[in-house]
Write a structure and sequence with these properties.
The chain is an alpha/beta fold. Helix content is 33%, strand content 26%. 54% of the residues are buried. Bound molecules: 1-O-phosphono-alpha-D-glucopyranose and zinc ion.
């Protein structure tokens, strides 16, 4: 085996964001670009000599080529064993599970999550650590600093490794195990949930539609929902992963999964609709005639967890990212559970789960998960819902209505302003920051500010601090607006405005969300001057 050492120079901008390094695919395809980043990752973790790693991706354009490069660089670094999904496919939660059950030292996931794929779209690389979760900031900072001083990388010379069939092969001294991407994940789901109950639900005529959005969960959902649980063929749609996701955004929200929403609002709608994203960690839940916000979904799972075998003995605690609505806080308070508020991004939940402080966590961006892995998990959330519905016999609508009646309702929406010029977006945030101490006490659009700050998180487990995680403005009566800039975009800046208002009066909890939120939307506009700063009259995406 020949190891080539290639001279290189640092490439600007290789700073991992909210979830790994994400760039346009053509950027990743530039000479040395991927190689520099992978070598920087190896350098940041003290090399891969003698280590076991997991490798897979969401199947987007460049996935297969990039996997071959990672394999050759792992072999060059002296890795002992690589566990790779067949055809270089693994959903993010399945990769997390494989890292954990194999006691691996970490893993590389090739994905830009819900961003579109293809030669002109996005690609990404995430590094996960031995607990199966996304690398914490201490490691991503080290990777970035390695990218800034890299001078060479090592790669073995070889033909492409055949990843098309499960089995064991070698690349030099490194053992490569090509595994069925679904098998271990399916076994884990069977342990967590009452499959017999869900099977009986389907057998009773309960109809489900799962939209895999031409992304990686297709094979998983087909095997589990149709294969094991007996949902009729055709329940899982868009089930074959495509390199460009059929030209769409593989993002499970009412905008990009509009077809599913339309079907769920129709007279002959199935009982339950769901979708997942590019790499299978996000989920959208829709009942007949009702879209469930991700924040509400987290609250419902927390409130009903005891109905599910894996969580029957209760939850250790719950956590949500800061911009996620406080619906789950209400459940935690009622059930006497500890509730943590973390910055945006799954990596902040890892410590809390490793330390046994939380069992369930979630984000408003369609991410829910538990300590069964260290990533959010789309199909897991769907099975959790199905298990609850099978157990209670309720429809999604009835369950949600009963939930709001018991806990009150947090109306919620997020407005995204995309591809805003970076300096304009920064100016908007800077101007808010400058006024934080003046805002409390002011009444804006009939709403009185009670608190305003720039969220700073102190990790209770490792003592680290993450500052500047978003501007929070709270109003009298429980409304809240949060402003932050996306850390996953690849074009300009994306301004995210998170809007929430609280309703406890049972007579008003079934109000139209748009009407319930009109006041806080106006207050947000006036406080931040979104129009004057960005020149935009309306958000590009509302979820
Ligand atoms: C977005 C979401 C965030 C999620 C991340 C990765 O990050 O807002 O909740 O963890 O994608 O899926 P953002 O672009 O806001 O930084
Ligand atoms: Zn994702």
């Amino acid at each position: 085996m020949t190891i080539n050492t290639i001279a290189t120079t640092p490439i600007e901008g290789q700073k991992p964001g909210t979830s790994g390094l994400r760039k346009k695919t053509h950027v990743f395809k530039q000479p040395h670009y991927l190689e520099n980043f992978i070598q920087a990752t190896w350098n940041a973790i003290g090399g891969v000599s003698g280590k076991t790693l997991v490798l897979g991706g969401d199947g987007r354009h460049f996935n297969k080529r990039a996997a071959q490069v990672v394999l050759r660089m792992a072999a060059a670094g002296g890795a002992k064993r690589l566990i790779v999904g067949q055809d270089a496919l693994l959903s993010t939660p399945a990769a997390s599970n494989l890292i954990r059950i194999n006691g691996a030292d970490g893993g590389i996931i090739l994905s830009a999550s819900h961003n579109p794929g293809g030669p002109d779209e996005d690609f990404g690389v995430k590094f996960n650590t031995s607990n199966g979760g996304p690398a914490p900031e201490s490691i991503t900072d080290r990777i970035f600093s390695e990218t800034q001083k890299i001078s060479e990388y090592s790669i073995v010379e070889s033909h492409d490794v055949d990843l098309s069939t499960p089995g064991t092969t070698r690349l030099g001294d490194m053992q490569i195990e090509v595994v069925d991407p679904v098998a271990a994940y399916q076994a884990l789901m069977e342990k967590l949930f009452d499959f017999a109950k869900i099977r009986a639900l389907f057998a009773s005529g309960f109809r489900v539609r799962f939209d895999a959005m031409h992304a990686v969960t297709g094979p998983y959902a087909t095997a589990i929902l149709q294969g094991v649980l007996g949902a009729p063929a055709g329940s899982v749609v868009n089930a074959t992963p495509l390199t460009d996701f059929g030209g769409g955004h593989p993002d499970p929200n009412p905008i990009w999964a509009k077809d599913l929403i339309d079907r769920m609002m129709a007279d002959d709608a199935p009982d339950f609709g769901a979708a997942s994203d590019g790499d299978g960690d996000r989920n959208m839940i829709v009942g007949r005639g009702l879209y469930v916000t991700p924040s509400d979904s987290l609250a419902v799972l927390a409130a009903n967890a005891r109905l599910v075998p894996a969580y029957a003995s209760g939850l250790a605690g719950v956590a949500r990212s800061m911009p996620t609505s406080r619906a789950v806080d209400r459940v935690a308070e009622t059930l006497g559970l500890q509730c943590y508020e973390t910055p945006t991004g799954w990596k902040f939940f890892g410590n809390l789960m490793d330390d046994g402080r939380v069992t369930l966590c979630g984000e408003e961006s369609a991410g829910t998960g538990s300590d069964h892995v260290r990533e959010k998990d789309g199909l897991w959330a769907v099975l959790f819902w199905l298990n609850i519905l099978a157990e209670t016999g309720q429809s999604v609508q009835d369950l949600m209505r009963a939930h709001w009646q018991r806990f009150g309702r947090n109306f919620y929406t997020r407005h995204d302003y995309e591809a805003v010029e970076m300096d304009k977006a920064n100016a908007l945030i800077a101007s808010l920051r400058a006024r934080l101490s003046d805002l409390p006490g002011q009444t804006i659009a009939a709403k009185t500010v009670t608190q305003a700050d720039d969220f700073s998180y102190h990790d209770p487990v490792d003592g680290s601090t993450s500052a500047h995680q978003g501007i929070r403005i709270a109003f009298e009566g429980g409304a809240r607006v949060v402003f932050r800039l996306s850390g996953t975009g690849t074009e300009g800046a994306t301004l995210r405005v998170y809007l929430e208002d609280v309703e406890e009066d049972p007579a008003r909890i079934f109000a139209d969300p748009a009407e319930a939120l009109a006041g806080v939307i106006e207050a947000a506009q006036q406080i931040a001057g979104i129009r004057s700063h960005t020149g935009r009259d309306a958000p590009d995406v509302t979820t």
